[in-house]
Amino acid sequence: MRSNNPAFSRNEAFTRGGYATFDVQTPSADQLEDQYSMPSPVRERAMTLEDVVTRTGIMFAVLLATAVPTFWGLVTGAIGLGTGFLLTFGGMIAGLVLGLVISFSKKVRPGLIVTYAAIEGLFVGGISAIYTLRFGDGLVGQAVLGTLVAFGAMLVAYQTGLIRATGRFRKILIIATMGYLALGLINLVSVFVFNQPSIWFDTGILGIGLSLLGVTLASLFLVLDFDFVEQGIRNQLPQRYAWSAAFGLVVTLIWLYLEILRLLAILRGSE
What we know:
Order of helices and strands: HHHHHHHHH
Distance between the termini: 43 Å
Largest sheet: none
Helix content: over 70%
Number of helices: 9
Oligomer: single chain
Number of strands: 0
Radius of gyration: 21 Å
Number of domains: 1
Mean pLDDT: 84
């Protein structure tokens, strides 16, 4: 089973074979003798759930450290709209690039992961302010609460076995997500090239349905993330991989938050 979250799917450490199965070769007699004559290396302790939770908390603390000032500055007018635009969409692009670098890197890079959280905070704070200015107060708090509720529900569903990360589950989820992303790309082209209204913010049944689909897909991806964190712990990965696990969870939670925020905005706009 491989997660579609790039933080896990590109990392063999989170597969069921585990860290201990990498490039296993039978040593020769001379190699064994050399190994026994060398001093025993200090082995990095295995990753635990507490390590993952701690590093996830660190990432969110850093994210909030940039998101809150950006949000507050835009809402109160302390940050101009031009500067706010650059911070928001500059953070989005930079976060996307840095996220891809982290996902495709063969090494765990805590510095880049923390930097990603800081940059992503600019985008999250900025886009949250834009929604607030457009649709009114209270939207962000409701989206945060909705994200926490969805996270808790998926965690309970996973732990109780109500939803299992089976091969069929993964295939259906990937196909649905690919279709969702393809539709988003087509919509983007129609808006900027053909000057058509965006169906992504349609206040009718179509817009609400698409938004509900996005929330559902993001929520279900949490199940895959939980599964691969569990496999990493079970395979006794080195402690540094807790950063990769935290990165994967944060990426999915940000996606979920943005989908819920958009759904709430559509529902408020249709009133």
